[in-house]
Design goal:
Length: 117
C-alpha cells in the first residue's frame, strides 16, 4: 500500500505539472506534508500560495481545513499574494474500494485550483 507521504508526493506531482503547464514560475517548493504552502509561485507578476492535499477514495479531495487555509491566506496577505487549495484524489483504477499500491493503476480526481477568498 502507498503511504501518506507517497500519496502526498503523487499529489505534488499532479499539481506541480498543472501549475507548470499553466505558466506559473516556482519560487519555492516545500514537498513535506503539513508544511504549508507547498508551492509559492509567480504568474503575471503576482504571487500565489498553493496548499496541496492528496487523499484516497472515499475521501473527497475538495474538502479542506478552513482554519489552516485561513492561516495561510493571512500569511499570504502580508505579501499581497493569492491563496489556493489544490486537492487531489486517487483511487485504484480497477476497483475504487481496493487500496492503492505501487504497481496498481490508479485514477486521479483533480479539478484544478480552488481560490480561497
Amino acid at each position: 500500500m502507498l503511504t501518506e507521504k507517497e500519496i502526498h508526493q503523487l499529489a505534488m506531482n499532479v499539481v506541480g505539472e498543472a501549475l507548470e503547464a499553466a505558466g506559473f514560475e516556482f519560487l519555492a517548493v516545500n514537498s513535506k506534508p503539513k508544511k504549508d504552502p507547498q508551492f509559492v509561485c509567480l504568474k503575471d507578476k503576482k504571487l500565489h500560495f498553493v496548499v496541496v492535499k492528496g487523499c484516497c477514495y472515499p475521501q473527497n479531495p475538495k474538502i479542506y481545513d478552513a482554519v489552516l487555509l485561513q492561516k495561510v491566506k493571512n500569511h499570504a496577505s502580508n505579501y499581497n499574494a493569492r491563496t489556493y487549495f489544490a486537492g487531489v484524489g486517487f483511487a485504484h483504477a480497477d476497483d475504487y474500494t481496493l487500496p492503492l499500491d505501487k504497481k496498481a493503476p490508479y485514477v486521479i480526481n483533480y479539478d484544478g485550483l480552488q481560490e480561497i477568498n
